[in-house]
Amino acid sequence: MVNYVITVDVGTTTTKAILFDEEGNVVRTSTCENNISRPETNAAEHYPEELWRNVVKCVKSATRGVGSKVTGLCLSTYMHGLMAMDNRGKVVLNVMTHLDLRAAGMEKLLRDKEREIYERTGCPPIFVYPLIKMLWLRHRRRDLLNRIRYYMFLKDYLIMRLIGKPYVDYGIASGTQLFNINDLKWDDLALEIAEVEEEQLAVPVEGAKELDTIRDHVAKEMGLEKGVILVPGTFDGAAQSIGLAAFETRLALNLGSTAVLRALTKEPILDQDPRMRIFAYYAADGHWAVGGALNNGGSLLRWLRDTIARVEEAVSKMTGESAYDYMMKMASKVPPGSDGLLFFPFLAGERFPFRDPHARGTIIGLKYSHSRHHIFRAALEGIGYLLRVIKEALEENGIKVEEIACGGGGARSKLWLRIISDILKAPLIKCSIDEEASNLGLFCILLRVLDGSRSLKAIARGLCRDLHRIAPCKESSAIYEHYYRIFVKIYEDLRSAFTFMAKQQL
What we know:
Blueprint: E1 4-10, E2 14-21, E3 26-33, E4 45-46, H1 48-62, E5 70-77, E6 82-85, E7 91-96, H2 114-121, H3 130-140, H4 142-145, E8 150-152, H5 155-163, E9 167-169, H6 170-173, E10 179-180, E11 185-186, H7 188-194, E12 203-205, E13 212-213, H8 216-221, E14 229-235, H9 236-243, E15 250-255, E16 259-265, E17 279-284, E18 287-294, H10 298-306, H11 310-319, H12 323-331, E19 342-344, E20 362-364, H13 372-396, E21 403-407, H14 414-424, E22 428-431, H15 437-450, H16 456-463, E23 466-470, H17 474-503
Parallel strand pairs: 1-5, 5-14, 9-12, 15-21, 21-22
Antiparallel strand pairs: 1-2, 2-3, 4-7, 6-7, 6-8, 10-11, 13-14, 15-16, 16-18, 17-18, 19-20, 22-23
């Protein structure tokens, strides 16, 4: 009898469940949209109950007809979300996502201890982390603080709904700035700063081990039989890196709403530079995810589509192409370097490689000879330049980069992959399952648990199939090298201007 497993990836914008057979073949996929609520200025929240309903709905849809043959479930969620409940289990604070800007500025409270916190938790002093959000609650929302009994990070909330008790995997925990990456437990200093007791947090566990079986009534609601095992999994980015088989000198590049460059290592690696340009999060099964995440990626292209590219959208409707495809076609007609146009893609501030919440989108070098197509290409190149800074930071800290496997919706664009390959001076690999890589990584973790004879790396390399390789073009790389140095220098000059402008806002 063929058995199946179900993997669930809860992202910022969608929840995706994929049913795999025993060989790792995708049997069925189900997706639900996750709505973001903005109840006040700078807020970006998820309703945890809605996300739970999406998980149930997606699992039930993906497993229809074969629910009795599903043996295991593995779960990933996005990082850095903070929610809270009272002593009766009622939600007091909806999930503050990484897009929530209300805690911006509170990271300054760590100034005297930011390096120590970084070395203990692997998290640079950035406002997206739950520790900073806890400080915001303490200083700005004491009305909520007095009602809070438990703090949660979405993954532990979902696990609590699945098995009745809250647990959080090491991967999600390591993205909270509250977790000691050396001891794999909640960090005493971070908890002291947050004024939070360990009893207010879920118990951290290894994500690549069987935790429990799903409660009978929950399994029934999902269309499953009794006895389905739960493997906690990890965060979405680590799962994606595993799914892309990005181990050792093969890195993973995610071109989703944000852009992320990661290496999977056998130990946590921190930036020895005072700028703390990279993170170090636990992944699964003794592996670590080390890298940097941009606030701006595919979300920038969406903005371009909805504003500057309105003409392209109209034309695309006539030609049958998507607006994105038409934008890319027009950008491909512009030469490398965009005829001297530089686009600094900081529409949502930036966290890596520059910690600058005040940074804003900026175009430098605009002339009458430029068209909107130059702006499209310069935006793609701007993301590439920031990824180059992260790549250099990784290399400076001993990580060798031989090739980069790509995932996310942006990986569909051959032009964007070509640009990034030329800027990074590294081959980019297009994989067969790039947009489902997180779910494939979860399947690898499940298989590791069910078949302990093979390593996680061996399982992933056996399942990830490379489609084609994009090698950097020497001539284009030389042009980008010139503009990359200018890009970095101009950003340093702009930084004080961004700060000044933020202080002048009414």
